[in-house]
Amino acid sequence: MTWAWRRLRVLFSTQFALMAEYRAEVIIWMLSGTLSLVMMLVWMAQAAAAPGGQVRGYSPAEFATYFLATWLVSQLMVVWVAHELDPAIRQGQLSPWLLRPLDPFWSYFIGHVAERFVRLPALLALVALFAWLAGAQFTREWWVYPAVVGLAALGFTVRFLWEYLIGLLAFWTDSSTSFQELVWLLYAALGGMFAPLAFYPEWVQRVAVWTPFPYMLGLPAQLLSGKATAEQAGQGAAVLLGWGVIFVLLRLWVWRAGLRRYGAVGA
């Protein structure tokens, strides 16, 4: 345990220092991912123009709360590992990593976690500013906030695992990141980035509940909006844990199969 903790601490310190060097770029990345904020303005306008000032039970302020919460959680789940792993495998840059006494997975994972700590202060400041401008009102139930943090941590881990799996496809394809765009579309649509899942046709909702997507973005956003219960949070955590186990096993299998195929100089 001491061996693992010491390496984890050193790895986090180095990755945090590296990410802190790019803090200005991190803020630019954050501001470029504004799809939820655009959808917030669209739905707020729709609700304001609708009879009774609501669309399916959502007032403009409730749309502001939901989409701002979606944006907040989505910023904690930004993952770019496939774009780093793909060229590392295809161009042979993976070879030096294989000489280290640590699976490259952990370096990438800790790097992403460290980036969250660099991103968080500016992210919270922007959320406070946008909430004031849009009139968003987050719930005052204290238990919601640790539940959202837990779901966000699980959701980030699940997303990192599937993005890592996509990157590993570079062992067999010329551009594994092409698959990422398709998966991102499902993540955004079923996650509730375009609209709350309850706005979709019933058959889409029945399919979506078997995927991890609604529990990564939509459920935390519903919790922060005061529209979800503790029981639903527990069910969402159980589903994300199940998908996490599946992706961990898949990652190990694909990694070992890919290494047997890897043929770069020095491998």
Automatic annotation (TrEMBL):
The keyword Nucleotide-binding does not apply. Pfam families: ABC2_membrane_6. The chain crosses the membrane at residues 26-51, 63-82, 117-135, 142-162, 182-200, 236-254. Keywords: Membrane, Transmembrane, Transmembrane helix. This is ABC transporter permease. It comes from Deinococcus arboris. The lineage of its organism: Bacteria, Thermotogati, Deinococcota, Deinococci, Deinococcales.
